[in-house]
Every structure is written in C-alpha cells, then in structure tokens.
Amino acid sequence: MIAKSKEEAVKRITKLREVIDHYRYLYHVKDQVEISDSALDSLKHELYTLEQQFPELITADSPTQRVGGAPLAKFEKVKHRHRMLSMEDVFSREEFSDWMERIEKVGGKKAEDFYLMTKIDGLAISLIYKDGVLITAATRGDGRIGENVTQNVKTIESIPLRLRKLEPAELTKYSHINLKGTFEVRGEIHMGKREFKKMNAKRKKLGETLFANPRNISAGSIRQLDPKIAASRPLDFRAWHLDVIGQKTHEESMEILQLLGFKTAPGKVLRELNEIEDYMNQMITDRDQIPYWIDGLVVRVNSHQYFSDLGVVGKTPRGIVAWKFPPEEAVTRVLEVNWFVGRTGKLTPVAIVEPVFLAGTTVQNATLHNPDEIARLGIKINDTVIITKAGDIIPKIITVLTEMRQGDEEKIIIPVNCPVCGTETERKPNVVDIFCQNPVCFSKERAQILYAARAFEIDGLGGKTVERFINEGFLTSPADLFRLDPNEIAQIEGFGKVSARKLVEEIATKKEIGLAEFIQSLGIPNVGEETSYTLANKFSSIEALQLADLQDLIAIQDVGEVVARSIVDYFVSDYAMHLLEEYKVVGVKILKPEKTAQKLANLTFVVTGSLESISRDEAKELIRKAGGAVSGSVSKKTDYVVVGASAGSKLKKAEELNIKTLSETEFLSML
C-alpha cells in the first residue's frame, strides 16, 4: 500500500513490525505456523514499500534490515563486556564424576542440581542488546577481543533484531530480574542437517565445490565481509546464556531467553550422577534424530550464585563442563592404499576410502601407520571397514568386517622400493617402519626443506612452492633456501619481481637462529622440539653436540638409547656433515642459548591445560631459560606439573604418581 500521510505510515509500519515479529516468534521459538510463507512475505513487502516511501522511518530493528549494507573492508575489533570463556571437556563417567567431586571440594558442598543441554556444534557468538534492540554481534576471538560481525548476524532470521516484550503475567513472574538497559545474550550459530544437505545438493547440481561440514559453513559465512553471502545461507541460532542481574538459576535464564524471542537447545534439570549418565546415553541414542549437529552435553551448576562462587580456573569456569560423545563410527570400503614418504624417509601407508560423513566432516582417507598395523588388522584392499575419528579429529580404521568379503579383496603390498624414487626400502631390526634409503629422494628433500623452513620460521613457503623450486633446480637441501635468487624465481609462473624479492628478503632475515631451533631444523629422527631444547641446554654449540658420544647422550634426562643412537648416526652421516658445512657457507649464524639465572636447573616440568596470562609455549620457554627441562608426558622423572584449565589426563597421571602440581601463579613465583 501507499500511505496518504506520514502519520498514517507511522501507524501502519508500527503495526506491521509488531505482527511480523509476533509470527517470527511463533515460528522460531514456539514451532507454531499460523500464517503461510507467502502471506508473511506479503506483509514484509508492504513494510518495505512504506519504508521506501518514508526512508526516515527505517530503524535498525526493522525486519527489512536483516539484509543490507555494503561489503566491509575489514571487521572491526570488539572488546567483550565479560570474557568469553571455554569449557572443560570430559569423555567418560569417571571423568565427569571427578569433575563433580572437584566442584564439591572447591565449593564446600554438593551442587543442589545441574542444568543439562545439548552441546551444539557451531560458532559461538555474543549479542549485545540496548533497550531491547540488537546493537552489536561479535565472535569469540581470543575470549577478550572478538570481531564485529553485526551486519552478518542480522541476516539470521532466528536472531531477534528487537526483543519480544513480556506480557504482564510474565513480567510479574520475573520481576526480580532486570531486563532494562544493556545486556548480553550468547549462543551458537549453526546449520540444520536438512538445510546442509539441501545446500550441498544445489551446489552439486551447479558443479560447485561441496561444503565439508556445517560448522565450517557457519563460521565461514559469518566471517564474510559481504553480508549478502551470510543472508544466502540457511543459518540458525540457539541461545544458551543470558547476562542480566537477578536471575537465580540457569533454568530460569533459559525460560527468559525463550520469552524474549530466542530459540534454545533442549534442556533438563537433574541432580544425581546416575540420572545424568542415563540422559547422556539417551542423547547418544537420539542424536541422529536431532535436526542439527551436537557433539555432547553441556552440564552446568544450575544455581547462579553457586556457579559464581566456584569461580574460574585459567579460561574455564569451574561450574560448567562439556561431556563429549564417544567418537562416531561409520562403515566404508577401502579403495586403495597409498604410501607417503616423510622427511626421515619413513613410508606411511594411508588407506583411501569411499567418502563417508563422520563426526561432522567428510572422510576420504585414514592412516594405517605401518606394516605391523596392516598385519594386525588383517586389512585388504576392497575390505569393508569400521572407521572412527580418534578424539573426533584423526580418521582411523579400527575393525575389518571380514564377514562382508566377497572374494575380490586384494592383499596390500608392502613396497620393497620407494614409490617416489624407486630406491630399495629398508626395515631395521626391532623397528616397525620401513624407510627409503635414498638421501636425495624427492619426497624426502621436499619434506626436509619444509621442516627446516618451519624451524627457521620462514613464512610464505608452502609445499607446492618448495616442490616447484626443487623441480626448477633451485633447491636440493635446506641450506639452498638461503641461495634463492629473486631474478630466477620471478621467471616462474605465478611469481612476479615484487613477490620474488619479498620472499628472498624474508628468508635473508632468518639467517640467525637459536641453537635449539637449529637442532630441530635438522630433522634428526626421534628428536622433536622438547629434545632439541634439552640438547641445547646441555651443549653450548652444534659442534659440541656433534662430538658427543653415545654414553654422553644417554646420560641426559629424557634422552634414551634409541634417541641417543639416532643423534650419533645422524652426525656421522655424509648428509649431515655436508648440510652443516653448507649452512656455514651461506652465512647461517647459530646463537648460543642465553645464560640466565638457573633457578629451575635439574628440574623437569610438564605444562598442561590453558594458562591465563601466558601461553603454554611461553611457559615452556620460561622454564628452559631458567635451566629447567620440559617433557611432553608425565612420568616418575617429572618434578612439577603446571596446571591450567582443561588439564585432563596429565593432571590425573600426576595425582596418581603423587607429583607436585603448580597453579599458574605458583609456577610464575618460582621464576
């Protein structure tokens, strides 16, 4: 309609917005449909027409303003009102029971009850409302600073631009809660299973690349600078946190969120461990029936006061935990087995399987580790297998369904020659792996150069680039990185004079390297980051390490006979002697470890969990600079375990071995 006057338009626009918001609330929150999509579209169109007639009447919370705005040049940073903290993960009844006991010990009493809700597998978002209107939406970021994604978030229909006004009876029931002024709502942006399937079917029809999983689409859509991209995708939102004054329980918060116009995840209040476990098992059984992806249960102390009293450890509130589902399993078929050559020449078998959707991603390959694992599984090509994702991350074959065999299965051939260079492979006594013996095997060269580049912290060198440089004859060893010629690089397709010059200049700034990092760059078998630092603390130079004999090395804590023999064998090899000489020729300078007060000399530490003021890597560096050693696992040789949030199994092992644990504050006071 066309309004005859501005006054008439104001009345009609106000009514249209109220009605449209009401139907949005019924559809998204109450799951009730009282008007057809076409009728609702007609109301929205009328509202749009009136707003175009009187643009000065357009407000930020109007239903017409969900899509709009020019693409941004970048996202602005937003400081969160309160830190967006993470949750501790538990994976079993035992771990969950331990959590219940810990909060009882810290709080001095049992929690009266717990609020349980499904853990949605999506993107956490913070929404700020002022006087009922959405003013800011921000991503989690580092917990303190996020990115302002308001334009994109406003395109999601299930996020109210203006909060629903409570009815008089509702206001009376919740009169103790202050819903005025500015407050925050947090929740999860996600995509439903059916919507994800439909979107990928459409993309397949158009010949476009399929999306891997709905979590990635949710995060990727919200981080697009053009809001029209987010608007084109069927994103959804469910709230799980309300930050206002006066609420008594989390159950009450969830009730209010629904009344304000938000969808929420299904919730339940329970008291005892057994009934919580029963509900967890029910969710495991029912998870496929839920219309969106979930990966566990969130269990929270229901009382807001007790939750607050329990406080925070690191970046994790003590009063909440995520009880994660066991790894998902799926059945698929092995199509072939490929062997990949790493920097040490080790050949790793990888099974290529029929694509299968597993734990939110499409899996197409799984590691078989080594020939012994192939023999243990008794696996063959064309076998039907059960595949899982260990920790919901790494695809792994756990069982071969031999009863599914039809006679066309083929034995997996263990290569006697390197699949890359053709050199004969070798399997040493008491070693499960096989190796390519060719010191100049292309795949070994590529992997060694990439490994060294990472240790030297050289940016801009990916696998494809290194491969091209090897093919062009620019690189034959890691030392050749410092011989690259920008004029030669500029001749390669995809490179120009500017990019070639910048790459060579970047590499030139990396000629100075610490002793520990240099040892790591050599790629000595069985010598990783921690051992490299241990060796750097023990020896003052690379020359001193070269001269060390087997017994000298075995005597070092955390360096056993296998590692010691690897080091000795490496430094007597022609490859190592030539590489070290080449590094001298190109001007690489190895910096001696800084001599500082050795307050932690002869002490071994393990750092676990998330720390508050520093990262784990920074904590390890502080330990090393103070003369201490860092280990990746807890053993009887460990002196201290530094414990942050979500410490997990290492904390449990320390308690079992009666090893002293340190909080972050206690650790820092030792330095």
TrEMBL record:
It is an enzyme of class 6 (ligase). The active site is at K119. One of its GO terms (cellular component) is cytosol. The keyword DNA damage applies. NAD(+) binds at S86, M87, R140, E188, K324. Gene3D superfamilies: 5' to 3' exonuclease, C-terminal subdomain, 6.20.10.30, BRCT domain, DNA ligase/mRNA capping enzyme, Helix hairpin bin, Nucleic acid-binding proteins. One of its GO terms (molecular function) is DNA binding. Belongs to the NAD-dependent DNA ligase family. LigA subfamily. This is DNA ligase. It comes from Candidatus Uhrbacteria bacterium CG_4_9_14_3_um_filter_41_35. The lineage of its organism: Bacteria, Candidatus Uhriibacteriota. The gene is ligA.
